[in-house]
Input
Amino acid sequence: MNRIVRFASSDRLLPLVGVFGLIAIWYIGYWSRIVDPVLLPPPHAALKALWNGFTGGRLLYDFWQTVIRTFAATAVAGIIAIPLGIVLGSSERIYRSVEFVVDFFRSTPASALFPLFLVIFGVGNATKIYVASFGAALVILFNVAYGVMNARKTRILAARVMGASRWRVMKDVILMESLPQTFVGLRNGVSLALVIVVVAEMFIGSVDGLGFRVFEAQQLFDMPDMYAAIFAAGALGYGLNILFLMIEKSFVHWSGK
Amino acid sequence: MNALASVGSYRTLYGPDDAPTPHITVRGLSKTFQGVVIYDNFNLDIPRGRFTSVFGPNGCGKSTLINLIAGLIPVDKGEVLFGGKTLAQTRIGYVFQNYREALFPWMTAFANVEYALTLRKVPAKQAKERVNALVERLGVKIDLTRYPYEMSGGQQQLVSIMRALVVEPEVLFLDEPFSALDYEMTLFMRDQLQRVFEETGTTMVLVSHDLEEAVYLADYVLLLSRRPAKIADFPLVPMARPRHPSTLSDPDFVELKGRCLETFQREVRKS
Output
């Protein structure tokens, strides 16, 4: 009893409670046959499939394909959206005039645009990357523009009163001011890019990638493999978020302070 | 023209030998904000090398006045000259009330101060030397390699003041610089500022919402009326420097403060 209390009171281990809880429920579901065992293999089978897939199996290759596509999509999105966001954000009038269009397409599910992108770019690898960068770009654009627009007025005045030119104010103050929001945009953008890439891998004539792996395993009723691919996708999403948070912390150390 | 008449009053108060020359001359200043007239044909002379405090009823445009003079907000009409020069030809320093939003959090405190010199195209090596010289002269005992958000409010405001001072401004404006600090820190910072003033002899213009502080620091107290603001009074503060907390209970100080308070209350009641 005492040990359980000590365990629970150690805050760093608290997240494990949920993990073990989930695995316990999974086992109960499996042993009690509430769920068809064909659909729900035991956790250790899924874990084994995950291990095998990453050590010599195809899963590792699919994982990397998805990673590459997601990073490529985010990079394309960033290269287009960051400069554009700065331009839009630096003039409230310009931003207001395109705000509706940005918001509209930001709210449009990118998956609804698959057919359009297929027509324009064909069924190749590029289509998946472009459709994901489209979605990510709007998120990044929106955040960068807001970061620029919401630059602290006092800081801009402080630079101006010290004799900074318009260009210096832009470069030294407004750009720096927009960085925290830009990183928020990049973090949301990469998450969205992953979502779109995985969906695209399922439905846009794919031969690899995590989306393809999940879809194919399901078609073959290879459930342990399917769960393994789902967990790989989850780990990727979680890892990307942590990675971007870490980059953010070291680049914009002043964020939120 | 009655504003000009009251401008003259400080000369008579100060005595003929010691009459300071005007440094900042404001003529025919007008400013309207969303239909509200804040200043209408306002005239003012701010003396050179003296400490002037600006005090007045809430919303009368104390801060607006120094923002107009320092060019932070454009004037509708009128002319502001600094010893005959325009603002563009004059080096000014400005200390904001909200130091948290005025310092650059992506730079260390040292870099913040240095940046003011970078903007004036001072070479990097020379800039560092000048910052170090200022630190030494003011006897600042803060670790300037830290970032502003790692510092206390008082330390941040001290960095702000250093950033404004490092370019050796001809005029230093301070907009309620201590109002966000606790009382202990405020007392300490007042004395720091007084030392800087005595040390440099820079013309200083301080906006304060605290009458005691306004009188304590000042050579002249500019008392403004309700808007459209006029000069209600512009008395000399004859107390010797350096002033100490004991000055606060000096009978002359108390009397002068009382007189200012009377003027202030008369202006507040007017409507």
About this structure: Residues 1-17 of chain B have pLDDT under 50 and may be disordered. Residues 98-168 of chain B form one domain.
